[in-house]
Structure formats: C-alpha cells, structure tokens
Write a structure and sequence with these properties.
Distance between the termini: 32 Å
Radius of gyration: 17 Å
Structural class: alpha+beta
Number of helices: 7
Order of helices and strands: HHHHEHHEEEH
Helix content: 40-55%
Strand content: 5-15%
Strand order of the largest sheet: 2-1-3-4
Shape: elongated
Number of strands: 4
Length: about 160
C-alpha cells in the first residue's frame, strides 16, 4: 500500500494550508504523489490522498482522470510527450512522434524494453510559437525536427 514519504506528506499538508478550499490542493498533491511513485498514480495513491486530505476518493479521481499530465500507467525513465495539437501538428509534430517511436522501437504509451522511454502524443503544451516541440519529463525542447529530437533522446540513453 502506498504512503507518502515524510517529506511528501509535509508538502501535501503545506498545500492544504495554502488554500481556502482544500480541493484546490488536489493538483499539487497529485504531482507530489506521482513523483514519489516513479511517475504514475495508482488507486492506492488516490485512497491515501483521500485519507490525508479528507477529500472523497471520487473527487480526487475526477481531477486525476481529467488531466493528462497525471499518468495512469507506469512510464519509462524518460517520458517523452510530443505535442500533436494544431500548431505542432502543422509543423510536423505527429510525424515526429511516429519517427521517435520507430527509432526507439516502442509503441505509443508503452515502456521501451530497456525501461528508459515512454512516448506519448499530448495536447497543447503551450509552446505554439516554437512548434514542433516535446516535453521530456519536466523539460521543454522546442523547434525540433525528427532528427534533432532523436539526437536529444540518444543523449539520454
């Protein structure tokens, strides 16, 4: 059963104290828990947060399932999120995602055999003026080509 670390628990309590409505702390608390659980959220985490935050599991699940930045399945060490929304799509984002999958030998949303990569297509990451782009874990990489994207990823192996 999942339990937040002492530091994680302190961070969630700090978030709860920061807001007038405790529901406002759900998103930052999910981020904290996701980071402590190697990048994804499980039903155990939802139960634990519900107890810690005194918020019904259903309310936390509503937020968790709505936002795509919370992973429902395990991801690789490097979670490669390729924007495929309109600006990036027009600049080759969808083709770049396919190229990355082919080069890494992995299907979308699956963890590579070596456990290092998961490639996902995502909606707008708010970097439309620098399309196409991808986010690897918490870092943006912009104005990419399929080749420059792969050069970045090869450097992470």
């Amino acid at each position: 059963m999942f339990k937040l670390s002492e530091q994680g628990l302190a961070s969630v309590k700090k978030e709860l104290a920061r807001y007038e409505a405790k529901e406002s702390a759900i998103i930052p608390s999910l981020y904290i828990a996701q980071k402590e659980n190697k990048g994804f959220i499980t039903p155990d985490i939802i139960r634990h947060l519900s107890q810690v935050m005194d918020i019904p599991e259903a309310r936390i699940n509503e937020v968790f399932k709505f936002y795509t930045m919370f992973n429902q399945e395990p991801v690789g060490k490097y979670h490669v999120q390729v924007c495929t929304n309109i600006s990036c799509a027009l600049e080759g984002g969808r083709e770049m995602a396919s190229h990355i999958c082919k080069e890494l030998g992995v299907k979308l949303n699956e963890v590579s055999a070596d456990g290092r990569f998961t490639v996902s297509k995502v909606e707008c990451l708010g970097s439309c003026g620098t399309a196409p782009m991808m986010q690897v874990n918490d870092t943006y990489h912009e104005k990419l080509t399929p080749e420059s994207a792969m050069n970045l990823l090869r450097g992470m192996k």
